Each structure stands twice: as structure tokens, then as C-alpha cells.
Amino acid sequence: MCGFVAIIGSPQAAAEVHMGLRALQHRGQDSAGIAEFDQRFRVHRGLGMVPTAIDAATLALFESSRAVIGHVRYPTRGSGHIEDAQPFLANPPGIILAHNGNLTNVEELAQKLADKSFRMLSYCDAEPLLGTLASKMLAARPFAHRTQDLITAVKELLGEVRGGYTAVCGMQLDGKPTLAVFRDPKGLRPCTIGRRGNAWMAASESVALDPLTFEEHFTPKPGELVILREGEEPQRFELHNLGHTPCIFEKIYFARPDANMAGRSVYEGRMAFGRTLADEFSEKGLEGDVVIPIPDTSRPAAQAFAEHLGIPYREGFIKNRYSGRTFIMPDAATRARALRLKLNPIRSVFKDKRVILFDDSIVRGATIARISEMVRDLDATEIHLAIHSPPVANPCFYGIDMSTVAELFAARFMHQGYPGKAGLRAAEKEMAKALKIDSLTYLSVEGLDQAWGGPRCAACFDGKYPAEIRAEDRLAIAADRRKAADRNTSETQF
Amino acid sequence: MCGFVAIIGSPQAAAEVHMGLRALQHRGQDSAGIAEFDQRFRVHRGLGMVPTAIDAATLALFESSRAVIGHVRYPTRGSGHIEDAQPFLANPPGIILAHNGNLTNVEELAQKLADKSFRMLSYCDAEPLLGTLASKMLAARPFAHRTQDLITAVKELLGEVRGGYTAVCGMQLDGKPTLAVFRDPKGLRPCTIGRRGNAWMAASESVALDPLTFEEHFTPKPGELVILREGEEPQRFELHNLGHTPCIFEKIYFARPDANMAGRSVYEGRMAFGRTLADEFSEKGLEGDVVIPIPDTSRPAAQAFAEHLGIPYREGFIKNRYSGRTFIMPDAATRARALRLKLNPIRSVFKDKRVILFDDSIVRGATIARISEMVRDLDATEIHLAIHSPPVANPCFYGIDMSTVAELFAARFMHQGYPGKAGLRAAEKEMAKALKIDSLTYLSVEGLDQAWGGPRCAACFDGKYPAEIRAEDRLAIAADRRKAADRNTSETQF
Amino acid sequence: MCGFVAIIGSPQAAAEVHMGLRALQHRGQDSAGIAEFDQRFRVHRGLGMVPTAIDAATLALFESSRAVIGHVRYPTRGSGHIEDAQPFLANPPGIILAHNGNLTNVEELAQKLADKSFRMLSYCDAEPLLGTLASKMLAARPFAHRTQDLITAVKELLGEVRGGYTAVCGMQLDGKPTLAVFRDPKGLRPCTIGRRGNAWMAASESVALDPLTFEEHFTPKPGELVILREGEEPQRFELHNLGHTPCIFEKIYFARPDANMAGRSVYEGRMAFGRTLADEFSEKGLEGDVVIPIPDTSRPAAQAFAEHLGIPYREGFIKNRYSGRTFIMPDAATRARALRLKLNPIRSVFKDKRVILFDDSIVRGATIARISEMVRDLDATEIHLAIHSPPVANPCFYGIDMSTVAELFAARFMHQGYPGKAGLRAAEKEMAKALKIDSLTYLSVEGLDQAWGGPRCAACFDGKYPAEIRAEDRLAIAADRRKAADRNTSETQF
Amino acid sequence: MCGFVAIIGSPQAAAEVHMGLRALQHRGQDSAGIAEFDQRFRVHRGLGMVPTAIDAATLALFESSRAVIGHVRYPTRGSGHIEDAQPFLANPPGIILAHNGNLTNVEELAQKLADKSFRMLSYCDAEPLLGTLASKMLAARPFAHRTQDLITAVKELLGEVRGGYTAVCGMQLDGKPTLAVFRDPKGLRPCTIGRRGNAWMAASESVALDPLTFEEHFTPKPGELVILREGEEPQRFELHNLGHTPCIFEKIYFARPDANMAGRSVYEGRMAFGRTLADEFSEKGLEGDVVIPIPDTSRPAAQAFAEHLGIPYREGFIKNRYSGRTFIMPDAATRARALRLKLNPIRSVFKDKRVILFDDSIVRGATIARISEMVRDLDATEIHLAIHSPPVANPCFYGIDMSTVAELFAARFMHQGYPGKAGLRAAEKEMAKALKIDSLTYLSVEGLDQAWGGPRCAACFDGKYPAEIRAEDRLAIAADRRKAADRNTSETQF
Predict the structure, then answer these.
(1) So what's the pLDDT on residue D248?
(2) Chains D and B touch (3+ CB pairs under 8 A)
């Protein structure tokens, strides 16, 4: 996950990057960082949400810079320690980098860099990405830090670094502050470029552009390098395009509904998921009296679903706006109560009704199991569950933290890739039984493609990984995740 | 505003009070406090949200207590400094007190107490309330700290202390830890009493009971004193009941939708407001293509409104879940952008539509003005505004912070109390003009009473104050608010 | 130990109290507090040294007050938690109190107060002292908070509260801010009153007066109550004088050398101890080549000792000015090294010399044992140890933290009180053997009295306790100390 | 100033470096840092004293490293911000560096590095030193990070980097953790190398070795590079020795008295300064009744001075052990009092005496002026001032922060270098008059050389700068100091 914001050419670049990061806070709440690469270079990183990690006094240090990069981090790889926060700096040759995504050959890259005396200071995969780029830049002869050297370096890098990633880099190139953006050859992770007069902005989602009145200008292609400078037109270099397969899960869950992705509205997409699911729900012959979204993500799709079926839509769960991750709970009994602290039901909405619970996806299944249990006590006559995405049965290696296969709810019922629509309907019966509810309906992969057309990575649903993942990569990633899990056993997903 | 939680008779009273406070966090985010009155007395108060103000190490100090009071504070009177946080302790005679509400004769009470050598350490009105109670307890002869002395003391107090308040007090009475709850003679501020086996709980809203599996037991009457002890039935003393007029604004805006108030569901109430307003909207001959709530409070009413009129309901604004109060913004231009950081519109929902914006209330009007301006840029063909409460034209003296008359939006158009439904319709035209929108429709006071029947305080709408407010009280309160405003000029309402 | 500073009648009372507390920082480094009792009452307490415990922002809150009390705390009784920091407030009736000393009948007092509903919030003995005073003030009839009531209350209190204590109290009396100071009937703990124009100051040592240009005015008598108000002459009431026996250990170790105590210079006193000890050292037929003080306290006496004997004086140990209490030490070997981090010897000063180490006193003996061991490795030909006080063989119950008898070094060699000079000389031989040094010479009690004449409490040396200590008091104190020791096992004395 | 500690080959390297830094705390209190370069590289820096800047939790992160560098910083160049704290890391090629001293051609170096894309992140001159080294290492062909490359790089560096500096560097060389130490060609700043079994330690002063039981092994020569590895003998390379002129001011003031410098005891040196000054004092025909040191530095010399003249030595000033740098003082009057808070006189020592005040040096003269004024009020019959070093009349460019010429006390009276002993005696009369005292006697430069023989840098006294300082260097340094002074106007020297 993670999110980045970069601005070049604005007199208030730092304050605006700070605002942009707040618009992307949903992409990562563990740490945040900011860096400048204009007159001077400076990096600051802190733990916590944006206002905590980058406080007013810190932000003031950056106020004279017109070229700033910021990042919010959700720890896919790395431990959530301050040292794993982004951006990173390689000095020499003076390159700042932040990225969104996940590399799948970190060990291999780190090994190569050790020979070149680039030291890893963290467990964050932004470091091998930066180290690879920095080494190539330093190796350029004559050593002059030219645009051409960067093009050569990134071209090589795209052939060596595997995984899904969009990186923003700040440096002085040809003597000018330069913002460089590049995407992996499959364009797995999102990116948008905006313009406001002479200033340019790159961000993980368009929602960071909106409050700053940057207009969406274009979406970089897979394997493309974009060079942005104040007052100049973007220079675009398509270096290693292997065909665009953007992550579909961004549209289902991760991106904000008000975002546009490659020109399409996520909100409208979710409405389409809801309508298509409504058709599949009806095809199964199912009915209900009320549609109740599990907040917040599923609202637009649930609304469209209800409207399409002509069933009332009710906000039967109230989500506590103030509940954060950390609970102080003395024992298991109290911990069990914590769900109601986060999500309190309104009994009258459920009572004596055939209830259709509606959610965006099921990953580990712990929360939906607890919610189902809670709803059973509310005197609903039937409980149906509708999910506006297909079953998550395969791990993501490109930047979405979905745990290992062993932990995935759907993987317990569907062993070998996506079984087709009919196979799905069969599996749903077993799943509903496990959850002790009357029915469960996922959106089929067919329905997904009908609702949001075009090429996409849906590996978590269909097990087809568009960017190469070698066997050794899988092993290394699995080992990493076990370590990270050990470090974070106290955290529970709700 | 403010909220309290008190538990007696649970082995995990402190941890549960902490969870209860988190369920009531919406009632106050400036400070929080906790106190025990079992084997030993201890008070802790801190600034910020509950997890910050009362951290795990602090909470651990209270872990052996079975009798605990907690409080979250929104600074109605007082400065937001730590010294103004609740609960307070008077020692001797050993009484802990927290309350929700606002006293209207603070100066008079403070004057009386000075003669008795009770020193005010803060600007919080909980202190004169506590000082009055403590003085009366200390004056009892023989001095023995008996239940009877408390009854006498509270009875006198209810005749002397003016305003709206519900207080929870912890003390040793007849040698036992005792939780005492009392309400002002008009029952203006909410309170509910819950039971779980031998344990008792008192809270500002029922939503604090739910996650802790306390069952709602009863709602204390106006002017009633309730005495709660572990394993004993409640003792109830109706000491000074002047007729119940509970605050209607709790139902419109302040309480959580999943709360019950005096046995009625706030959620259902809001749905009723929405339906009644739909009728009034139609009566005016108005029409629209889409109903768009301004999140979060107005959702249930907007949903009912849309359904009642058969118009599509769309979540056209996305609220940033992570935006807090504090923004770091370098200049006015950036500050203007901050609204979109908190509330970003989805253009496609508005474009070429006759839009009905829907909100719960208008207080100062600054936010709705800015939202209207933003919507005008989204290519809607018409903008209509529907508000599911009547115009706020009079200040609240009983605990809701609504600023002075001068700052109230509606007061600029409606000078002398509520003008009746016809007068309201006339005023709405002027207001719509001021906001540069096509129409504005409030719920009439008549409609309000139709939707949520029974006696109530609606002074902010109709100017009729059920609990006496003397002229000198008004002057003192106004002076106080000016001082508080001076202290808080940097904060802006969105 | 502990120290207090109080000022009434200065426009900068708080800033000056803060400076005074810094001058008394040697009397307590665990916590500090400040309180005002002029227009308003306010108390602030914090952990750590004065600048940390009372920072600039906090101090600014007190800036308009002309009547302020401050305190630095060394935890004799109590746990070193913030709740044990002084000053304390009883409200009602509005009395602030801080004290220096130790009560010996805390349990008895606490029991009495529980009947009066005064709740102990801490383990600090200032609370029962304050509670006793507050209860008596509240019981006065008519209740009018008059000077006469205070006189009566303190007179009763002096008969009930046992131990050594000097207390400063702030309150409104006869409608005026009033600073009251009272001492226990034996005057065990120090106190001095200073004047500067219309302003008055009370402090534990005169060194707090010096930087603020207050002139020493008088020393209150044992059992005396002094009432100080801005612009008025002190009112003095001798209520319960049982004969002055001030603590001699203040002069030996605890007070700063630049202090005056009851008109006599501590520095000159220490010089006298050194000269008298020189005579006793010679009488034993001992000789040496160099006198080396163990810094810092023993310097003046060591200088006088060397000069008197005509032996060179050398600063052979360099004390690290920056070493605080807390060391981060991974294992025992490293911990052993910590002594040299605090106290590093200069080898050339010791080499081939008959060395006379010089210190003020030996309490538990752990440090001197380690120093002796260190010196043995420095190639001195002989090691003699001279101590400018008699052996500490009995615990102090009046406010000096000297641990239990079991832990006292001297008590292992001298069981029943002071054995007379001859007995002392005999015991010294055993002690020197235990320390593996050539000789040990204490100042005899006879020498002590010769050097600093007049009545005194020297109970730690001679076992004669001037203020009554009942058997039950001893038991309660011993229990307390065990508890405190449990809480503090990680701290080591150097 | 500043101080460093580095250890390689100890299983507790980090904890021991931490202890070593505490022994060197007197060399810098503004910030501290620690870095490891064993299995992994990690740097931590913090503001404040060692225990604050590097707390226990931070230290624990380094616990598995056997190769650690630490630093305490006094801000000669740079602003006292965290970014200026040392050590620094260049990555690639993975070099950690800390140093003690001052470079005089920072601008020139920074300019050269900009061409190589090494970015300065701070105002600290450790960065250009590190950048120069890193650039040279990266330029080695073949790139293999070999010992030979380091030798070449340091040899070149010593010819390019001007000023006084001792640097410690950590890196992986020939595949092994390697600690490298090098000194400027004149050996201006101190350094000592210690051994404990297989482990090696480098430190600014020997006092850091003592508590860790490292034995002094050797002192690196000017322009020497020393390579230290666990279990190997040191490799020493004399690369650029221009003749040793170590800083004499270290012996006078800066070093701890228990330190050895190049095999000689600082303590004995200070005694010699005192005796020589005694002779010069007598030659002038001056007499006195008592010698009173101004603590702490001048004690050993004052003691020798008094003994040599047969005059009593008295500790007439008591220094507050707890006064730090920061005072909270409301106005000028209070600020004036602050001196007595730091340094309180004992009146009886001064009264009716011909007093000889004794100090180590006079820099700006503000403190001695205030002390003289204070002593005049103490009824001394005469005031003589003896200073155990010559007049400081020239700025230091090699690492001692002595302000600009304009601020130096002596420079107001002695314009062109050192005027010889006779000239000095004449100038002293004017100085004494300015201070309103009876006489002032400095140690002459001749006396200085007699007391501590051998070559030395005494540029601050005689204006002869042994290491080249170009005109442009002087200008750049002066500009820097003005900037730093602007940043620090609020701090006053006592």
C-alpha cells in the first residue's frame, strides 16, 4: 500500500505536500516523511499519522523549498520502525526516493549492492530500489549527473528490479532540481501527474491533487520515466513497457472513492460492482428486506446494489469515528467487546428482517465472522452476505498486505486458482455454512471484468501474476512476512 | 456537551470506563479524566483524546478499583487547559465529581463558596457544583458522611444551582463506595443507568453501555438523585422535579445515531426528521434529481428523505476519515483549500443535476457557505439545501456550545424567536439568496414536534428557555464566552 | 531531607521561588513543586530536577502571584511517584502545605483523618500533616478562617504530630494571603526567615536567600508558629517549645557549605571538624604524606585537616560533573566500572605515598569499600581513612534517609549506642581490617561537640532520640522502608 | 571542542562507548550521537546530554555490534540543531565519521564536493570532511574498498583539508569492520589509542579509557592514519606529518585534570602552571592573605600556587552542582542575581583579607568582571587576580570556541600579538584598572613554556598559527561565527 506526493515548482511545496499526504492518509498510518531537493537536501521521517510524524516546527524547516517529496507508509515489508519510514536519501550522489509498491527480489538486489558498498540501513524495500539507482548514477562516466545518465540508469533498473512499484525521486540533474517518476513495466501500482501553472505534482491518487487545485494531466505508462521540472513540459521516456495490468484491488478497496484511476472514477466503478453483484445475487434466487453496508468502504456499492434490487438501504452499523488501532483491554472477554466499540449495531434495523450484509471483500475473515455472530443476536430472520469482489484466495506480492495463503479465508475452500463462476457458487455454500449464515454471494471474476473492463492484475482473485515472481522470491517474501508477523502479534485486524 | 461514564462493582471498572469513554469520544475531544473512589481515591486528567489523555501506564494505576468515574470534555465554559479537565475532587470530605451540562449561575455560586473557603482552581463549572455539594456535606451535624446527609445536600443544591446538568459523584457513604447520580430539575442533559449482574453503570449515552454488555435499566428523572452500590438495588430519590424538557438538539446532532434516549432510538428519530422534512420540501413545490448528504450526521435523515421522495441518494462528498482539527496552512489561499481536504466532492454525482444538499443543522453558517460555493463549481444545474432541524436562532445556555447570537447564521434573518411556519418559509428565501443557492428548506418547529413528540427543550430554535436564566446570568455567560473566544481565536469551525 | 522555599510580597514571587529551589536542589532531585495562594490557588508538581519539573511554560502560569511556595523532594517516605511530590492542597478550606522532615506517627494520624473524611492520595507524610491542620481549621466555630483559629490549630497539631518537621503553609486568613511557618517542638529540621523590603521569605537553608538578596532576619524557635504577610511585621507564637536540638548531620553533610544555620557558618563548622579530627588522628600516632578528599562534601574539612597537620592536600580524585544517577550498564563487570566513571583517580598523586583518604561520613559503606579497593591498585604504600564525623550506627527517624540499622556499616561493629572515645578507637581497628586499609579514624562524639558546641540531635551517632518515638512508630517506619526499598532496588548508592 | 569515543572488538561496544561519552561529557553538552558499522550500519543522534540524547531504548538497538563510534558535540561551527550532530554517514560507500576540531576551508571543500554530487545536509564541518573521504574512496579503481584505497584517500585528504582535526571513521574494508583514525598534519587536536585484549579504543582523552579498563597504548602522530581491527595489531601510516604542535589550551582548561595527553598528566601540568605563576606573582612584589580558586578548573593550579607561596588556600566560592545552562529569569535584576545562584561566596573567607582570586583563563571577561564586583561587596581589603595562562588575545581557528577578536577581553588592551613579558606586565595594569581590582597577573608565555615544555600551538596567546589559514578562510569563518552568534543571542556566558 503506501502513498506518495511530490511537488516541484510551488513556493509552498512543503505545506502542500503535507496537505496532500493528509489526503492520502488512508494509504498508510504508521509513519510519514518529507524531503526537499531544491537549494538544499533534507529528509525528515517520523512515526504516526501525518500531523504527528511531521509537526509544524519540522514543516517550517522545509518552507523555502520549491521541490518536495512526501510519503505515508503502511508497512508491507519492514517493521514499522522509524528507520523503515520513507523517503530515503543516497548521498553521494544526492538522490531522494520514495515509492509505493513491493519489490519481489529484494535479497538479490541487496546482495549486488553490498559489492558496491551501499549499506542497507533498514528493512524497507525502498532502500534496494534507491541503492540500485544510485549505484548506476555513480557509475556513469564521465560523472556529470545528466538527464541522459538517469534515463540509462532507470532503463537498466527496470530490467533488474522485479515487483510492482511506482517511485518518485528528487535530485539535481543538469544543475536543476528535477523530479523523476517511474513505474514498473506492468504499471501495477497507481500514479497520476497533475499540473498547476508552472508547478507539477505526482501522487498515488488524484485525491491528493484536488484540494491543491492541481489538474490531472496524465497517467504515466508502465515502464515509463517522467522527468518534471518547474516551468518545463514533462519529458517522457517509455523504457520498458510490458503491457498495463493495474491492480484491480485499488478500485475495490484501497483507493478513496473520490479518486480517479487512469481517468476512471473509483466511485462509479464501485457502483457498477454493486449493480453487477445485484444481478448475480438475483440469479441465485436470493431475496432480502434490507441492505446494510459494513462501513465505510462498501457504501457506494451497497447503495447501488439496494437501488438496483429495489430493497431499502439502511446504515445499521455505526462506526466509531474515533476508534484507532490501539485498545487497552485487560482480558479476552473485554477484547471481544471491542468490536462493538468500533461498530455498534442499531437493533431496530435488523429485527425481524431478512438482512443482506454488504462488504467490499473478505481477507482473513475474522471480522466478518465476528460481525455475523453479533448479527445473529439481533433477531434478524435471515442473514445473507454480499461481497462486491471475488474471493481473495492468493497472496499479493505487489504491495497489498494480504498475509500468507494460510491465513486467507477463501483459500480454505478454494485450493487451485479461480474455479469459474459455477465453482464459485458451489464454494459459497461451504463458506456460508462456516460463517453460520443463510447465504454468501461474491462478485464473480466474470462479473468483475464486466463491471470494470480492460486488462488488470487480479492475481489475488485468479492467481495469475502478471509480473514475474521467481521461486526464490516467494520463499524470501514468505520468510519476511513471518518475521514481520512475529513483530506484530499484538495487533488484531477488525 | 461533554460525556461521563461511571461504573461501580466491576473488577475491571477502570478498563471498562476507559472503553466507555472511547464510545463517547464524540462528546468531547479536548481532554479526558478518570478517578477512583474505592479503597483509595485517585484522580488523573489529561489533554487530548482518550488514549492520549489516559494512557496504558496511567490506566494500570487504577486497575484494582471497582468504583471508577470517567469524563470526556468539550470546553463549554473554561479554557481547554488541563486544570479545567474533569473529574474534580474535594478533599475533605472526599467527593469526586464529573458532570455534563452548563451552569448558568456560576458567579453566584463561586461567591458563596469563597465565604466557605472553597477555592476555585479552574474555570470549569464542575468546581462550583462540587464545592456546593462538598460544603453542604461538611456542614452536616453530626459529621458522619451518611446517605441521609447526601439526600439533604442534593435537595438543597438543586434549588440553588441553575442550568442544565447531570452529575456523577463518587464517595464513601455509610462506609461504602457509593456512586451518586443527579440531574437538574428539568432533566435537560441526558443520562442512562445500566446493569450487569452486581455492577452498575451511569453514562451520558447508551452507546457506552453496549460494548460493555451493560443493559439499559432506567433513565433518572429530572431532579432525581440515584444512589448505586455494588450488589444493591438502586436507591432513587425524586427531590426537585420541575417537569422533563430534555434537549432536542441531542437527537438532531449531538448524540450518536445508535444511542437510545429515554427509551427512544436516535436513529429512528432522525429518519422521522427526514421524512417530515420531505413532506415540507414537497409542499414548497420543490424538486430535485439527487439527494446528497453532507457527512456524517445527516446520513440517516437524508436516506429517509430521499426514499420518501423517491429520489436517488448518493454519497457525493467523501469525508477524509483522518482529518483532525489542526491544519498547518501557510496562507489564506491554502486555508481555503482545506475544506476539500476534509470534504472532497465526486464531480460526476453533481454534474448536470438538480442537487439537494442535505445537512442536520446550520449554526454559524461558515461551512455551508463554503460548501455551496464549492458545489457551484461542479456544474450542478440547481442547488437546493435541506436541513433536518429548524433554524438555530438563539444561544444555548444548558451545555451546547453554539456561540453568541451575533454569530448565528439564522439570527441575521429572524430576530424575535420562532416566526411560525409561514414566517420561516419567508425567511428561507432571504437565506437562500445569501447563500447564492436556489432554495433552502428547514424542518419547521411544528414538523420537529410531529417527528419527535413530547416535551423538550428547543430553546435554540424557539427561544423558550425551560430552566430559569436570570439577567445577570446572561451577562456573566456572555462575558465568559468572549474570554473563551479570545483564547481560541486560532480555531476555525469547518 | 527535602527543601522548601516560600515568598510572600514579591511581584516576581514565582520566578524567585524557582531560583531558590535551584539553590536547594541538593536537598532533593526526585521531584519539585510550586503553588500559589494569592488571588487564586494553583498547585503544580513534576518529576525530576527543578527545570524539568517546573518548566518555563508552567512557571508563566504563576507569574501574577505575590505569594508562592515551592518544594524539592528527596523521597524519605513515599515512592518517588508524582502523587508523592509536594506541595499539597486541602480544599476546602484552601490550605497549601509543604514540609521538610519526617513524621513518626503517620499511621495514627491517617486513622484519625479517615474518620473526618480526609482522603490520603499519596504515601507522602505531608498529607497527614496537612489533613490534621485542615481538619482543625474546618472545625473552628464560627467558621471564619481567622488567624486565631490557625494559632489554636497549630498548637493542637504540635501536640499530636510526632517527628521532625518544618512546614510552610499558604492560605487566606482574615481575608489576606498569609504565609505560615511552624517547626516541631524540638526544632529538628532547619529553617530561616529572610526579608527584602516588604517581602518575606522562608527557606530550608540560607543559600536560597542569597541569590535573591533577601537578608536573614531570624530563625524560628522550636514549636514556634510564624505568620508572614506582605508589608507587615512577622507575628510569632511560641506554642510548644521542648528545647532546641537541631540536626547535627545537616552541618556534617547535608547542608551546603555556604549556608548559615542559626547564625553559624556551615563552612567554618566543617573546618573545625577537620582540625579537631587532625588532633585525634595525631593522638593515635598516625602519619601520612598526602591528604586526598573524596569530593565534594569533605573538601573544607580535608583542607583544614591537612593544613593543621602540615601535610600536602591534593585533589586526587576527579569527580565527573555530569554523571547523574542513572547509568545504563549491561552487566556486573560494567557496573563495577561505573565508580571510575563518577570518580577517577590521578595515579601520580597516590603512587608511593602514605595516603590519607578523607570523607565526611560512612553510611552503608559500599562506596568507601569500592574506593579503598580502587586505591589499593594505585601503588600507595599505606591507606588511611579519616572521617570528619562519628560512626553512623543508628537510623534517623527525623528526615535523613539512612536506611535501617541492618544496612549501616558501623552498626556491624558497634552494637549498643556510642561506646565512648576509647571504645570507638577499638572498633576502628576492626573496621579498618574489614576495609583492608591501614587505619580508620572517625571524629569522636566528644570531638564533634567540641568543634560545634551546643545542644543538638546526634541520634544517628549516639542513639539518643530527642523527640519521642513510640514502639509502634518504629515498627510502622521499618515496614514503610522495606516497601520503599522494594520499589527502589535498582538504585545503588555510590 | 567536541569529543569522540570509538571501540572495535568488544561484545559490549555500544554500552561502553556510551560510558566513554559520559566521561567526555565536559567536551560537549549540546548533542550526542552513536553509530555502528559491524554487521549492519546504523546512526543515531540526539540533542542534549548523553543520557538524554542516547536513551536506554536507543542504546539497546546497538547492543549486538562490536564496532561502534560515539560523539559529544560542542557547536564550534553549526547551529546546535540535530542535523549538525555527529557521527555522519556517507552511503554509498558506507563510511561513518565523527571528528573533533575545526576545518578552516569548509567553503572550498563544499564547492568541490558539489561537483561530485555529495550534498551537505548540515552546517557541521564533519560533512565536508566525510564527503571528501567518501568521494576519494568511490573514485578508486577497481572499486573494491581496500585498505590501500583508504591510505591513498587519506593521504590526499590531508593535503586538501586545512585546520585542526582528529577523525574516527568506521567502515568495511577488505571485508572486515575497520576503525580508522587520522589526525591533521600538525596534530592540533588530541587523540589516544587504548587496548584491552583483542579490543581497541580511540578517544579524545584518556579519561574515557580509564573506567573501561582500556590501557593507553599510543598516541597517533600528526598526519598519521591508524587502522584498527579486532584481534589485529594496529596498522600505522605516517602520511603527512608537518611537525607536532598540540593545542596548549587543552592542558590549561579544556581537558579533564585526570587526563594524560601524549603521556603527560594534565593535573601535574596545571600544578606546574600554578607554581610558575607563583614565582611571577612574587617577582611583581605582590602579596596576599588567602588564595581562592574560582571553581572548578583552577583548583589544582591554585592549590600549587598557594602552597608554593605559603599562603592559605580556601574554597571561598561554592558552585551549585545542579545549575545548568538554562535559567528562567523574568528581568535584568533577576538575571544579575543568577551569578550567585551558580557561584555563592562564603563571606567569612573574604572579610578583612587581601584576597587572591585565581582562575584558569579570561576569554570574554564578562564573568570575571561580575565576580570582581561581587567580591568588592564582601569587605576584602585588597583584590588580586591571578590567571594561570597568558592573555587570550587571538581567536582560535582549530576547534576552541573563543569568539571573535572583538569580544576578547585581552584584545582590548594588547593589539599586536604577544608583547613579551615586560609588555604583559604593563598591560596588566590597565586591565586591573578596568576590572577595578588591585592587581592582575597572567602567566607569561615564557612561563607557560617553562611549565609545559615542548612544541605547542599557543596561537590564542601569541598569534602564531601553526597550520595555514588563508585570508579567504578567515573571512568565511568570521561570517560563520556571526551567523552562529545571531542564532544564539539568548545564551549568556557565566
Answers:
(1) 97
(2) no
Report whether D411 contacts D405 (CB < 8 A): yes
| DSSP labels, C51-115 | HHHS-HHHHHHTTT-SEEEEEEE--SSS-SSGGG-S-EEEBTTTEEEEEEEEES-HHHHHHHHHH
| ipTM of predicted complex | 0.92
Q: Tell me the residue type at B264.
A: R
A265 lies within 8 A of chain B by CB: yes
Helix (H, G, I), strand (E, B) or coil at D441: strand
Q: What are the pLDDT tens digits along chain A (494 aa)?
A: 799 999 999 999 999 999 999 999 999 999 999 999 998 899 999 999 999 999 999 999 999 999 999 999 987 555 568 889 999 999 999 999 999 999 999 999 999 998 778 999 998 999 999 999 999 999 888 878 899 999 999 999 999 999 999 999 999 999 999 999 999 999 999 999 999 999 999 999 999 999 999 999 999 999 999 999 999 999 999 999 999 999 999 999 999 999 999 889 999 999 999 999 999 999 999 999 999 999 999 999 999 999 999 999 999 999 998 866 444 555 666 666 778 889 999 999 999 999 999 999 999 999 999 999 999 999 999 999 999 999 999 999 998 876 677 789 999 998 778 999 999 999 999 999 999 999 999 999 999 999 999 999 999 999 999 999 998 888 888 787 777 666 543 333 33
Residue C326's closest CA among D355, A244, D56, D235? D56
| Consecutive H or E run containing A268 | helix A266-283
Neighbours of A480 (CB within 10 A): 17
Query: Cα–Cα distance between A257 and A266 in angstroms, integer?
Result: 5
Cβ-defined contact of B41 to C119 (cutoff 8 Å): yes
Dihedral class, residue C295 (left if φ above 0, else alpha if ψ from -120 to 50, else beta): beta
CB B101 within 8 A of CB B398: yes
Closest to B33 measured CA to CA, from B126, B105, B121, B120 = B126
C118 vs B94, B117, B135: nearest CB: B94
At residue C242, what is the residue type? L
β C290-293/C354-359 pair status: parallel
| C-D contacts at Cβ under 8 angstroms | 147
- The three cell numbers of residue A142 are 564521465
Query: Which regions in chain D score pLDDT beneath 70?
Result: 76-80, 323-336, 402-403, 484-494
Q: Cβ D40–A92 below 8 Å, yes or no?
A: no
- Interchain CB contact of D58 with A (< 8 Å): no
DSSP A253: I
- What CA–CA distance (Å, rounded) separates A9 from A230? 4
The pLDDT score that the predictor gives to residue D465 is 96
Give the neighbours of chain D: at least 3 Cβ pairs within 8 Å. Answer: A, C
The C-alpha of A58 sits at a distance from chain D's nearest C-alpha, in angstroms, of: 12
Are C40 and B91 an interchain contact pair (Cβ–Cβ within 8 Å)?
Answer: no
Residue in C43, C93, C121 nearest the CB of B117: C93
Q: Which residues of D touch A41 (CB under 8 A)?
A: 119-121
3-state secondary structure at position C185: coil
Chains A and B touch (3+ CB pairs under 8 A): yes
Q: Is A169 a catalytic residue?
A: no
| Nearest alpha-carbon partner for D376 in D359, D351, D343 | D351
Give dist(CA C311, CA D67) in Å, integer: 47
User: Of the candidates D60, D339, A355, D341, which has an alpha carbon nearest to the alpha carbon of residue C208?
Assistant: D341
Contact A278/A305 with Cβ under 8 angstroms? yes
Helices D471-487, D106-115: inter-axial angle, 10-degree rounding: 100
D245 to chain A, closest Cα gap in Å = 34
Give C103's strand partners.
Answer: C163
